[in-house]
Amino acid sequence: MAWYIIRRILQAVPVVLGATLLIYALVFLRPGDPIVALFGDKPVSEAVRAQIEAQYNFDKPFLVQWLLFLKGALTLDLGLSFSGQPVIDLIARAFPVTIKLAFMALVIESVLGIAAGFYAGIKRGKLFDSTMLVVSLLVIAVPIFVFGFLMQLVFGVKLAWAPVTVGGDASFTRLLIPAFVLGLVSFAYVLRLTRTSMIENLTADHVRTARAKGLTDGQVNRRHVLRNSLIPVVTYLGADLGTLMAGAIVTEGIFNVPGVGNLAWRAIQQGETPTIVSVVTVMVLIYVVMSLLVDLLYAWLDPRIRYA
Amino acid sequence: MTEPLLKINDLHVAFRQGRTMVPAVQGASLAVYPGQTVAIVGESGSGKSTTAHAIIGLLPGTGQVTDGEILFEGRDIAHASKKDIVAVRGSKIGLVPQDPMSNLNPLYRVGKQIKEALEAAGIAKGKAADARVIELLEEAGLPDAERRAKQFPHEFSGGMRQRALIAMGLAARPKLLIADEPTSALDVTVQKQILDHLDQLTDDLGVAVLLITHDLGLAAERADHLVVMYKGRVVESGPALQILQHPQHPYSQRLIKSAPSLASQRLLSQQRAEVREQAQEVAEVLADEVAQGDTQFGEGLDVVVEAKGLTKVFPIPGGAPWKKSEFTAVDDVSFQLKRGTTLAIVGESGSGKSTVAQMVLDLLKPTSGTVEFDGVDISTLRGKKEQLAFRRQVQPVFQNPYASLDPMYSIYRSIEEPLRTHKIGTGAEREARIRDLLDKVSLPWAVSRRFPNELSGGQRQRVAVARALALQPEVVILDEAVSALDVLVQAQILSLLADLQAELGLSYLFITHDLAVVRQIADDVLVMERGKLVEHASVDEVFSNPRQEYTRRLLDAIPGGSIELSR
Amino acid sequence: MPEIPTTAPLPGQDHFVAPLGETPLEATGTLDTSRPPESQWKEAWKNLRRNVLFWVSAIILGFVLVVVAFPGLFTDLNPLKADLSRSLEGPSSGHIAGFDKQGYDVFARTIYGARASVSVGVACTLVVTILGLISGALAGFYGGWVDTIVSRIADIFFAIPLLLGAIVGLSVLNNAWPDRGFGGGVVAVTFALAAFGWPQVTRIARSAVLEVKNLEFVDAARAIGASQARNLWRHVVPNALAPVIVIATVSLGIFIVAEATLSFLGIGLPYGVVSWGNDISAAQNQIRSGQRLGVLFWPASALAVTVLGFILLGDAVQDALDPKSRKKD
């Protein structure tokens, strides 16, 4: 088991390096002068330009820039943003908000999705199942920003139950609606996955054997069908955290949440290399750690899996 | 006069397909008395399992009882309420299901799953139930039950799982135990142990058993009363021995004639000797041609395949990088296959017999040792031309008739593929050859336009034989080629193989787990156990005078082997 | 061994033999020649035809495709012609969806917007499927270092969330290629989405190939002497296609949503291009300033219905190709 974890971590190293290199290269390829982006239309003297170029390593070759970034990253020095703040501070402020948002979305989508998928699976072809099928398809088909916008309009503006935007106060209640919107698409996928998995397991041999023991339908469905159906769902949920954090770009934009999405969005618009690459690196790290955790969780949920 | 425990009267079961009802059981009747063992015997599609599942109300999918009654202790349970049938399950009627691999929930400890049965029947709870679980597992013949109860199903071997399932089926002390092919997924030696144990246990407890099986020999050995089913109907029923010795219905007669375990050894050796004589004659002529001409591969030797010290070691992945763990699948195996004869390699699962087949086919490189084909070491073949020349001489037929043909290819294309690959003949010549091949394996020409999914298992296996023969090989490797087939079909394919051998002078390497089948097709036998060769002798020697303890156990385990038939 | 019963058999257990007339013996393995031969694709098509959902999606998508090909059939109006004097006017005769703020006819723009969304969806799906299928097939079939390299590269692209990667990619492309018009816009969005979307298909194709390559017919083909490459492309890949087709159909819908999202963020298709994403984005700004919901309803519904069509089709195809439902024996 220990060796499995070590091997996985070793495998993750090239992935993280590759991902940062890829993003670095993309941003590097972006034409235009970052100094201009920094100063806008104000004239810049040669001396200031040279100083800033040295400060951001713009004067060095591409690979050197990247290596210097990596070297800094090892000591948590991610460089400065164009506004002069250390990127690490920006990230330290933004990530907790987004993680909170994403986790809330994760809880909402899994509780609702699993419950609805469970009943839809048992009542296959009945009214509840068909309704849920339509709901899930609608949720997937209508873009998230349309939903977000409508919810904002209905709950924020028309009913005034919740503030229209989150702003500086990222409290639990204020994040509730954004989290719901963020988790909506995944809710549909969790529902569909749980339902399919339930239907598959309902015809499993061991489920028939459980019935032959004299267990009631309720006992069989809960203990044997649902429990076994959750394995693929948990795998999906683990991988979903990364998707949710990326999806936060849209949701955070609509509700003005001061999270990573907002941070990344502004940085991309300005071509602010250190911030973009840092945000992506942290996201990739989260992805890598989550997929390792999911695999370990998988082994815990399914005793047949033994990593060696 | 006692009353029957279970009485089925004119049972009809059907499955809904769209708007029509497809019948699966049509008018089955039978009776089981307390403490008695009754066996339902039939091939796949006979409705035997459907009947069993109808009794406990667990018909799969759209199945439903359309007519008739199932009286258990005088009450009709086919039309009872859901609550009543749940009350009967487990506590009054236990089930030992077919496949031990898929019938335990992989996510729960074995002990907990048996405990569930106790709790559902309201027999014991909590600590008391835990203690009872251990007793039950011990009773089912599982050593070290206390530790085993805390393990998960995947930590059990197939035989151990089946014992756990038996413990589960008997947990609530039912009056009737339905055993649905309880051992057909297990190795023969394990099968015998478990059946012996089950017999004794049900005897001691006075439990009636309804045994569902495809194996007539096994049924006759274990049951007092037989019910033979065919295409959803009971064609014959009565006292076991009476049916076995004096079958009345033509179907039962055919079934008994085809059962490999029940066939007479003397008769078989005679038939076999005739086939071998013809095959060797033809083969000798062919070998002379090879020896004289230099167009063909090989030297025309008497020994067509020779394995010398074959060993295959697989690395086990994972673990610390400096600790390489290995698994020796095949350990120093040598043998000779003589031209025009059949050499059978017999072994249970994990014996390495299929790995040997893969190495002889040059689909897997041996770790050490060599395979010589007609005097040529196949590891020395260089270049595509030599490789192809070897491939033309050795062709396989695999076990699973559902996986051995590409489902995307029509039968014509499947059989044509070897000819195309070797660039043999023009289009018209190939078509003529395919006609001839289909004819050889007794399939109508109409089959050629069909796809594998439209054919039965036996038909697919015939197509696989035709494909193997397309290149006119000298050696055919039959890797469990008849193991997945129903008894009647199996008998047909075996006789087809024998006919082809006699006609074409083929040499067979026949890989199987089933010693009973060996008598019908093989001349020499190689017994393998855990990668090692344990016995190598002629078929007659092995059956009359096995030298090794392991071989003896394999022989003893052949179900029905001890029953005398009057012919 | 049971003893021969000496007593008379119990009631219901006497020796019974069914009359042969009622239980005729049939030859084993007869072939039903009444039906025409049926390949698996044909059978899948038959399953598909029986599915109501398939027909619903076929009607939706058929209609969408006609709109894409011949938008002129549905409206005479020019989507690029604005009449500021009718800004935000409600529905009227000849203008069933009314006008937006700039005075564009909302219905005409919705009709013409189909082309951009569907082009991006189709182009992305094609690129991603071809790339994913080839890389996944090679990785799964050859294993070893080929697998290691392909899987690690796929991991790198997979680890970067699709939307984030596409945004970074597009921000580069937008700067490098400012005036790219409709065609260039579609190419740029396709490039950005496909670059981070292919690993999904690679993973699915790889595991499908891994499953198929161990089947016995592949060994049989090797024993015949078929080359590795022939084995892969003629035997393994055709049999591993089903899950790839399913994911491709569903991704079509997903990519359409992704394109709309990118356009909503203002970095997808160029501003001047008529697309649902651009129109939805514009509509939201207008509604925020208190305007009517109609401007949002039309493009958003058109988008949702199209995506729904592709997802339904994916579901129907999955049911039709599912080997579990296909098994007869």
Structural features, described:
The complex is a heterotrimer of chains A (308), B (567) and C (329). Chain A has 308 residues and is mainly alpha-helical. Chain A has helices at 2-29, 34-39, 46-55, 62-74, 87-122, 127-141, 144-158, 172-202, 205-212, 217-255, 260-270, 273-301. Chain A has one domain: MetI-like fold (Orthogonal Bundle), CATH 1.10.3720. In chain A, helix 5 (87-122) packs antiparallel against helix 10, helix 5 (87-122) packs parallel to helix 12 and helix 7 (144-158) crosses helix 8. Chain A is flat and about 85 Å long. The mean pLDDT of chain A is 85. Among the domains of chain B are: 104-173, no CATH class; 259-376 and 474-561, Rossmann fold, CATH 3.40.50; 401-472, no CATH class. Chain B is 39% helix and 25% strand. Chain B is of the alpha/beta class. Chain C is an all-alpha fold. Chain C has one domain: MetI-like fold (Orthogonal Bundle), CATH 1.10.3720. In chain C, helix 4 (144-159) packs across helix 6 (181-213) and helix 8 packs parallel to helix 9 (276-288). Chains in contact: A-B, A-C, B-C.
Radius of gyration of chain A over all CA atoms, rounded: 24 Å
Poorly predicted tracts of residues of chain A: none
Helix content percent band of chain C? 55-70%
Number of domains of chain C: 1
Mean pLDDT of chain C: 84
What's the CATH class label of chain C?
Answer: Mainly Alpha
Helix content of chain A: over 70%
Which class of chain A in CATH terms?
Mainly Alpha
- For the termini of chain C, the CA-CA separation is 35 Å
Report the CATH topology name of chain A: MetI-like fold
What is the number of strand segments of chain A?
0
CATH topology of chain C: MetI-like fold
Number of domains of chain A: 1
Given helix and strand content, the structural type of chain A is mainly alpha
Keywords (chain B): ATP-binding, Nucleotide-binding, Transport
Domain ABC transporter (chain B): 6-256, 305-555
Family (chain B): Belongs to the ABC transporter superfamily.
Protein name (chain B): ABC transporter ATP-binding protein
